[in-house]
Amino acid sequence: MAGQGYRSPDGTLCRGYCRIRHQAPQRIESADAYRENFEAWFATVDGPIDYEVHELLVTVRDDVAFCHSLCHVRSKRTNGEKADYWVRVTSGLRKMSDRWMITHEHISMPIDLRTMQPQPEFQS
What we know:
Helix content is about 10%, strand content about 45%. By secondary structure, the chain is mainly β.
């Protein structure tokens, strides 16, 4: 099928070589589960986490907003290794009862599209 691609079960359209890799959990159903996910990450860190937000863009319309940024994360892991990597963060918000609430968040590490490998040393 020239000009078409394979559509994965999650709806991603792939042309040519495509590797789809997911890490659990795929969906976090509650604030408690979200908190547990971050607590598991915090448990792997020894000391403070240096978290710098770069290139923050915010779009607001009525009761809906989106923001995205590149974030530089540095810390020391409990096994003594240093962590130093970049992530992309996108958050969707809704204004409910005069409060802005995050209703969707996506965090991913930039990849090299030629090799499909994570690029933790990516810089903005």
